[in-house]
Amino acid sequence: MAELTTGETFPALLEINARLRGSRPAIREKDLGIWQTWTWRQVREEVRVMASGLAALGLARGDKVVIIGDNRPQLYWAMVAAQALGAVPVPVYQDAAASEMQFVLDHAEARFAVVEDQEQVDKLLEIRVRCPRLEAIVYRDPRGLRHYTQPFLHSLAAIDAMGREHQKEHPEFYDEEAGKAKGSDAAIILYTSGTTGQPKGVVLSFDNIVKIARMSAELEGLSEKDETLSYLPMAWVGDNMFSLGQTYVTGFCINCPESSATVMQDLREIGPTYFFAPPPIFQNILTQVLIRIEDASWIKRRLFHYFMKVARRVGSDILTKKKVPLGQRLLYGLGELLVYGPLKNTLGFSRMRLVYTAGEAIGPDIFNFFRSIGVPMKQLYGQTEATVFVTVQPNDQVRLDTVGVPCPGVELKLDQSGEVLYRSPGVFKEYYKNPQATAETKTADGWVHTGDAGILDRDGHLKIVDRAKDVGRLENGALFAPKYLENKLKFFPAIKEAVTFGADREFATAMISINLEAVGSWAEKRNLAYTSYSELAQKPEVYDLIKAAVEQVNRDIAQDKDLAGSQIKRFLLLHKELDADDGELTRTRKVRRRFVAEKYADIIAALYGGKDSVHVEAKVSFEDGRSGTLKADLKIADAAVSEAQAPRALAA
Amino acid sequence: MSEAHRRRIGDVVLKVDNISLRFGGVRAITGVSFEIRKGEIFSIIGPNGAGKTSMLNVINGFYHPQEGTITWKGMPRKQMRPHEAAATGIARTFQNVALFKGMSTLDNLMTGRLLKQKGNFITDALYWGPAQREDIRQREVVEKIIDFLEIQAIRKVPVGRLPYGLQKRVELGRALAMEPELLLLDEPMAGMNVEEKEDMSRFILDVNDEFGTTIALIEHDMGVVMDISDRVVVLDYGRKIADGTPDVVRANPDVIKAYLGVSH
Q1: Same structural domain for residues A76 and A167?
Q2: Contact check, Cβ <8 Å, B209/A147
Q3: Domain boundaries in chain B?
């Protein structure tokens, strides 16, 4: 394995990288259709010039610099340039509205802003009167800013020119300032959105980021030969780990996409070896693949479907180097030649050797698809407060429903309520200017409350079941994790949304809305006639279909001793889809649990009242803004419960 | 219009003097005169069949008027010829998108560079030496336009597969690739939704602002016209009935009667 760069802070790591691997590429950006490359030596120069320019502008130790924009080399350099001067960069989500930015700017007491373009400049100008501390705005892209005459606006080119001047006058300045940085200093402040209340500024030290980056690089064998695509928001902790921490520690090259719309094309051109994406991105890729296959000629379609069957059978075993019969192995090899190889090449996945996904539960279809064609996807569990890494799946123990084992140096425990706590070198310093929240989250001896409820299985794998505050218990004391059950239900294509109930009840129940497209086409193939959503949902055949799904979920969770008690005994199919317009979902399609429980109190009472149907009259809002009343009798069905069984062998 | 922008408007660059155009017995344009100044956004509006597109066609030489003179960059002439217009810096887009549908966005834009390309038969045929360098130089110009119009993601997509709004943008890009002094836009926002119209308006203003390109456009969306134009000319049945700033034109009773509608 290639050696990792030593050094405690990013300015220090930069110096060493420039010496150790000065002519190797450090960062690329596609500009005017061409990938432009900067070597480590060039990056060192850029950062030094920019730092000197910012110093000439008045940036001083202890100041905060907000950084706003897409992933751009200059913005990454601005972070390290600020750190070299003892200032703290505060990256902000580039798509945040001006009013959302105002809170962060104000709370962080930012004096300077380095932003990408006119769009961000406009937002800052809008809130400037309410952020009196903001003194100067530096922009990268001058387009459209020609007529802006405000004296506090500076182009990055002008700052660099000032920097060169400053360097001539104070040749020792940069090294002196950069030399003062210590590992325990604040390196960055990341504001987490938080589902309730105002965002909190997570302060991470150089030690946090550098130590965790080094740990993860050693764990996964990352080296300067790796490549990655930096396309996730700079304000997200993950990007700081991948595009700053790990690249400075290992010396690998990061690549900035041309624009947010070209990410998939850029991915293909770069062919990274290391990649991170949340499940929805993989979902999109898979959907596009399937759509394009359906449009392909029949011979390609047949080949694809045949070899995908082969891949599903043995692909995952081959990936983890398990024993596979020679015939199957040869067939898979042929598939690689004809289908998987070209497919991976088209997607830019040919060279992938480490692919992470995290953030939410990933559907089995997506997960198995990518693993079966040889994309080594695995899950991790992390938090901003942990500097990303808490648990990672070892390569030979990749499973669908766990997030892996604690990383080296990370201690993990569950408290009585099932909440996950951890302690690690990555544990954040504090929430900026919020000692109360810090004390609530971080115990005196360094354990951090995640707010997530989890289970440790007997192999030591962590399974995240729900937000701790949503987890409850049945009357008999069995653990009840609504989102965990709902996710499992929603992995069935026929089910669009599900809401489960069970806290302080005798047993668990579910209210399900079917997926009209999936169930509709299923019904068509069976010559089942229907006129409306509510009629389709009440067909006995559809009830049987969903019942099979519910019973499958029950069988799955029966294998989990902690959750086996919360199997779904009764369910009903709703007469309508849950809808954000009716207030049942948030705009990001999350169930508003309390609202639903109130709105459907009659239904819930019926689910537990032993009746076999319930009459509903509901007001619905149509898309054109009208509203009407819908009357229906909904059947309530029972689902079989499975006996708790011995756990099956590892699925990997 | 911002003050900063207004200050950039210069001398008359195109003068249309007493133009009349007939197709057989049909009078398309009758005795129309106006002036377009350097750096301005100039709009021609009018009801259907008022002669707006015919006017643009006269300016870039598709139609030859029977009477009148066109003075382009100080040179008076009875009529323009399309290749002359193109070579001297007039580019245009069309009402019903006239792109090469089977070619990619990039290739369509590159065709806009043909007039600017230097080369000779031998080196071009061999794609060697100066020919290659020339190609790279032209590509750079085109790439800057791609960046400007934010169409990187469709660089290699055949134009025929693009949604209409994007095709319009590509067509604007091809006209821009000619680095024109005068850009004629024939209904650049026809058939677009609100968001696409907003995007296109922004691009038109940006082109005018960044490159100082003079723009003459025909458009039906009155909101857009009044918003982005420095000056507006109103045609009705081939005659000019008003000429002035958007505010002046909006208040003109003839315009209200002829165009914005009066109960008959």
Answers
A1: yes
A2: yes
A3: 1-89+180-264, 103-177
| Cross-chain Cβ contact B143/A144 below 8 Å | no
Q: What is the pTM of this model?
A: 0.86
Residue B185: CB partners within 8 Å, gap ≥ 6? B92, B93, B172, B175, B204, B215, B216, B217, B218, B219
Whether A78 and A68 have beta carbons less than 8 Å apart is answered as no
One-letter identity of residue A560: D
Q: How far is A28 from chain B (nearest CA, A)?
A: 17
Per the structure, the count of domains in chain A is: 3
Name, in order, each residue with C-beta under 8 angstroms of B263's C-beta and a sequence gap of 6 or more. none
User: Is A538 contained in some domain?
Assistant: yes
The verdict on a CB contact (< 8 Å) between A33 and B2 is: no
What digits encode the pLDDT tens for the residues A65-114?
A: 999 999 999 999 999 999 999 999 999 999 888 888 999 999 999 999 99
Residues of B in contact with A31 (CB under 8 A): 147
E strands of A318-383, at which residues?
Answer: 354-357, 377-383
Could you tell me where the beta strands, DSSP code E, fall in chain B? 12-23, 26-37, 41-45, 67-72, 75-77, 90-93, 182-186, 214-218, 231-236, 239-244
Segment 251-280 of chain A within 8 Å of chain B by CB: 258-259, 261-262, 265
> Exposure of A304 by Cβ count < 10 A (0-12 exposed, 13-18 middle, 19+ buried)?
buried
Nearest CA in chain B to A146: B210
- Domain closes at, from A467, A491, A518: A467
Task: Specify the 3-state DSSP secondary structure of A302.
Answer: helix
pLDDT at B262: 59
Give kind and range of the element (H or E) at residue B255: helix B253-255
Provide the domain limits for residue A559.
471-638
Indicate if A384 and A487 belong to the same structural domain.
Answer: no
pLDDT in the model for residue A40? 98
Tell me, what's the pLDDT at A355? 97
Q: What is the pLDDT of residues A240-290, one digit of tens each?
A: 999 999 999 999 999 999 999 999 999 999 999 999 999 989 988 998 898
B153 → chain A, closest CA residue: A262
* Residue numbers in B near A34 (CB within 8 A): 143
B:151-170 residues touching chain A, CB 8 A cutoff: 152-153, 155
In the predicted structure, residue A378 carries a pLDDT above the cut 70:
yes
Q: What is the mean pLDDT of chain A?
A: 91
Q: Is A346 part of the contact surface with chain B (CB cutoff 8 Å)? A: no
**Residue of chain A nearest B3, judged by CA positions:** A147
pLDDT tens column, B121-136: 777 777 777 888 888 8
A4 part of a folded domain? no
Task: Name the residue among A161, A166, A219, A210 with its Cα closest to residue A185.
Answer: A210
Which of B147, B157, B201, B210 best tests the A interface by mutation, with the highest count of A CBs <10 A? Answer: B147
Is A340 found in the same domain as A234? no
Of A448, A467, A486, the residue that ends a domain is A467
Give the pLDDT confidence of A558-586 residue by residue, as tens digits.
888 888 889 999 999 999 888 877 888 77
Give domain B1-89+180-264's CATH number out of 3.40.50.300, 3.60.15.10, 3.40.30.10, 2.40.110.10.
Answer: 3.40.50.300
Specify whether A300 is located in the same domain as A426.
Answer: yes
Query: Which pair of tokens denotes residue B243?
Result: 């000429």
Tens of pLDDT along B170-195?
A: 999 999 999 999 999 999 998 888 88
Residue A247 shares a structural domain with residue A321: no
- What number is the average pLDDT over the span A483-501? 90
- A70 at interface of B, judged by CB pairs closer than 8 A: no
Q: Is residue A263 part of a domain?
A: no
**Cross-chain Cβ contact B152/A262 below 8 Å:** yes
Residues A453 and A489 grouped into a single domain:
no
Is A33 in CB contact (< 8 Å) with chain B? yes
Interface test with A, best of B152, B169, B211 (most A CBs within 10 A): B152
Closest approach of chain A CAs to the CA of B142, in angstroms? 9
> Both tokens of residue A588?
């990001």
Q: Enumerate the residues of chain A whose CB falls inside 8 A of the CB of residue B4.
A: 147
pLDDT at B256 over 90: no
Q: Which DSSP symbol is given to A585?
A: B
Pair (A239, A110) in one structural domain: yes
